Please model this.
Amino acid sequence: RMSGAKRGSGYRKGLVERTMEDLPTLEAGDEVVRVVGLRGGKLVDVEGADGAAKLALLPNKFHRLLWIKRGNYLVATTSSAGDDKVSMLVKTVLYPKQIKHLVDTGKWPFPQPTEAVNDDDDDDDDD
Model:
């Protein structure tokens, strides 16, 4: 059977939970990038902290499971895929809790994010 063919809901649920809950570790070749545009399918226009525009590929395991939009942050690794245009492969999507972890550990390459990190802190409305 092909990889990913007829995967059960347990796999999908586990993948989404791991992606949303696990704290990322940046390995050699990994880079935090910001989504600047979506090309459709699994191609994403991203820019690094240095402002360099790159094209990233969203792997099949995330396709139709995790949704990204402009302004989201991702962890991507340099890809040596056969296509010259695609230079990065998305490893994970960063959510506010994970961004806060990267800021706290000093590994956040962008200017201090405001809205993304503060989303979790605004949940305690005492009205």
User: Anything to note?
Assistant: Residues 116-124 have pLDDT under 50 and may be disordered. The first helix runs from residue 9 to 21.
